[in-house]
Amino acid sequence: MAQMTVQIVTPDGLIYDHHASFVSVRTNNGELGILPHHENMIAVLAVDEVKVKRIDDDSHVNWIAVNGGIIEVADNLITIVADSAERARDIDISRAERAKRRAELALEEAQDKHLIDQERRAKIALQRAINRINVGSRL
Fold first, then answer.
1. Which tens digits make up the pLDDT trace of 52-82?
2. Which of 12, 35, 101, 108 has an alpha carbon within 20 to 30 A of 119's alpha carbon?
3. CA count, 13 A, side-chain hemisphere, 43
4. Quick one: average pLDDT of 110-130?
5. Which residues contact 28 (CB under 8 A, 6 or more apart)?
6. Does domain 4-88 have CATH number 2.60.15.10?
7. CA–CA separation, 94 vs 30, rounded Å?
8. Domain ATP synthase F1 complex delta/epsilon subunit N-terminal spans what residues (predicted)?
9. Backbone phi, then psi, for 25, in 5-degree steps?
10. Residue 108 backbone dihedrals phi, psi, to 5 degrees
11. Long-range pairs for 71-76 at CB < 8 Å and ≥24 separation?
């Protein structure tokens, strides 16, 4: 069976390193499915989940919440470099829900006061919290 190596790196170091038969990500240009021998490429990732179908078992799938970043595909090595990323099993959903609520309140306040920069930051924080909740719920 053809396989790829998937590595996810953050400023904290390597957080994921496994072999895969399929990877799904969302880039700023849309969804991207990657199979072995995919054309070499680099793309900007959106804040979204990464799906990795592992080679050890057809039903073994890892889900990782990635808060943007860059993906490089080169010779069956997929490297994702992100500011932050968390595997589903490591996400504290109650903490993510609290972050979501804080972001919602910050967004409301920024909109009421017409604070454009704060509104933009609150929208990003909200998107990240929702992504973490969605990925953490995949277990």
1. 999 987 789 999 999 999 999 999 999 999 9
2. 12
3. 19
4. 95
5. 43, 44, 45, 46
6. yes
7. 29
8. 4-85
9. -140, 165
10. -60, -45
11. 71/25, 71/27, 71/32, 71/42, 71/43, 71/45, 72/41, 72/42, 73/34, 73/38, 73/39, 73/40, 73/41, 73/42, 74/40, 75/40, 76/2, 76/3, 76/4, 76/5, 76/36, 76/37, 76/38
Q: Which amino acid is at 20?
A: A
- From the list 18, 138, 26, the residue with the least C-alpha distance to 82 is 26
Helix (H, G, I), strand (E, B) or coil at 2: coil
Condensed to tens digits (0 to 9), the pLDDT of residues 88-112 reads: 999 999 999 999 999 999 999 999 9
**87 neighbors 63 (Cβ within 8 angstroms):** yes
* pTM assigned to the model: 0.90
